[in-house]
What we know:
Elements: H1 27-35, E1 44-47, E2 52-54, E3 68-71, H2 74-79, E4 83-84, H3 90-93, H4 96-106, H5 115-122, H6 126-137, H7 141-158, H8 163-169, H9 175-179, H10 188-192, E5 199-207, E6 210-217, E7 220-227, H11 230-240, E8 245-248, H12 253-262, H13 284-294, E9 302-303, H14 304-310, H15 317-325, E10 338-339, H16 352-362
Parallel strand pairs: 2-4, 5-8, 9-10
Antiparallel strand pairs: 1-2, 1-3, 5-6, 6-7
Helix pairs in contact: 4-5, 5-6, 7-8, 14-15
Amino acid sequence: MVSVSDKTQFARPAGRTNLALLSIPDADEAWGQVLSRSSDAAFFYGVTTTGVFCRPDCRSRRPLRANVRFFSTVETARAAGFRACKRCKPDVAAGGAWNAARAYLESHVDRPVRLAELGRVAGLSPFTVQRLFKQKMGVSPLQYQRALRAGSLRAALKQGDAVTDAIYQAGFGSASRAYEGAPLGMTPTRFAAGGRGEKIGYTTARSRYGWLVVGATARGLCWLALATTAAEAEASLRAEFPAATLRQDASLSRLVEAALGQVGEAAPGADCVPELALDLRGTAFQLRVWQALRAIPRGETRSYSQLARELGEPRATRAVARACAMNRVALVVPCHRVVGVSGSLTGYRWGIERKRKLLDAEGGKG
Length: 366
């Protein structure tokens, strides 16, 4: 029986690693999250007197502490003899509800979808559906819907459609909506003009993996490439943003250090790796893949087909590979952690030998 009394033991789930599960140190803290009905907690609790297991934010009456057991996954709760609560539906949220909510957003990009409406479609509370999106993609349902619209807008602009026509065809209710929140990482007009008028600061630095160049807008890191020389690194940035205004900015060396910290190359004396603000530009599917890449722990790898299954798109192996190839921020979005199903290194935008070095270093061989 997988349960706990005085000290919580959370079994690690197969497949996708949920970092939130590994961050709960003991049963007392878990019980505190049940009492507060925390919507951020990522575990389950079972009640021995009812034989039911729930999510910590379930709105049912709170049980006595002595009757509670904690579980890290739906599977372990079921294996211990508990059945899913019909109110918070903990077993549904992990699979069918997520796909239902995502599909609903994707078919209603032409209008705002409120959390309450999305919750009714998924059969979950608004808080649970919000948390589910955060866990799966790292963004809220609203941010995901904006990404969907931005992807449609980007495609239309690349095909040469007029900016105003592209805005309305993408599902934005007005031109002003398309400019709010910079859904492309830059305004639609600037995107259509190849980034004209966009200001990007950059700097280059040498590393054990070659020369790095980082480029950043006011919103965050938008380019990180690896190259053989500093000139080649800088040229890659200019090729990606040919119409943008580029300026050297030595203060961005902090982004270099933070990026290297993502692969275990933190500067001496650094206690932790700072969170990087990203200005990523891609389709909704690419954003999902890049978020999934960031969830792969350092020292581990996934195959393209594995990643596709974790995204709930088992037939999208090629699309996953393309999204990896389109990654614009090496190291930070660690596409080097994706390999062939046989373990072969396959391709890498910045060279197979660099990929080998990165994986060796992360695996303790470097």
